[in-house]
Amino acid sequence: MKTRRIRRRRGSAAQWWIMSIGIAITACGVYFWVRNLPDPPRFSPLTLEPGAAIMRTPKATVEITVAGRTFVRPVSAIEFDLVEGESIAADVPGGAFKAVYQVAIDLPEVTFASLGADFRDCRVRFVLDGEEIRSSTGEILTKYSGIETGLEIESGSMVFPAGRSEFEIEVEASGAAPSFKAWWRLDSDGSKSPLPILGDVPDPSGS
């Protein structure tokens, strides 16, 4: 009795040729796709000072009210020093005014620091997260500086959490030549530093 051999049908040479071409085209497509991928982001080495001395993204605006009109402007510093008759901004009328600075900070870690200001001919008030900041003696951090005199106010050591914190500084200027400069004092450093405004300042008009 003869044994039948089962023959396996194999594709023709043309089928193998077509499949090989398809694989080659796919491989070329993948190769060119990988080659055209954007380069990974590169970052410069970072140096962090002790106590989070550098704020990462602080920004600020000021709302100025003078003669019944309100103006909102971005600012690059939380300060002004005016001579008699000078206005706080080029397109803002002169005279007594109220300036409310809105400041947002983003810290990489918990930071211990105090807030303060030097000022003349102004009433100054600090508000953090909707509450008035108190000094180390328990008094609300609000003082008034009279004509021809200057004052300094400073809170006690405060805990600024990691992440975003917001506070505002209200300044009512009524003298002929008011001045104001806000600052903070890091517990780790001990010296006064201007409140830093880094990066792009937001445009309140949205343009």
The CATH topology name of the domain at 59-194 reads Jelly Rolls
Secondary structure category? mainly beta
Largest sheet features: 7 strands, antiparallel
* Secondary-structure arrangement, i.e. CATH architecture of the domain at 59-194: Sandwich
Number of helices: 1
Number of strands: 13
Strand content: 35-45%
H/E order of the elements?
A: HEEEEEEEEEEEEE
Name the shape in a single word. Answer: elongated
Termini Cα gap: 95 Å
The overall pLDDT average reads: 74
* DSSP helix fraction: 10-25%
- In angstroms, what is the radius of gyration? 32 Å
What features would you describe in this structure?
The chain has 207 residues and is mainly beta. It has a domain at 59-194: Sandwich (Jelly Rolls), CATH 2.60.120. Helices cover 11% and strands 39% of the residues. The chain is built from one helix and 13 strands; from the N terminus they run αβββββββββββββ. The strands form two sheets. Strands 1, 2, 4, 6, 7, 8 and 11 form a seven-stranded antiparallel sheet that branches. Strands 3, 5, 9, 10, 12 and 13 form a six-stranded antiparallel sheet that branches. Strand 6 and strand 7 form a beta hairpin. The longest helix has 23 residues, at 13-35. It is elongated.
Any key phrases for this structure?
single chain, mainly beta, elongated, 7-stranded antiparallel β-sheet, Jelly Rolls
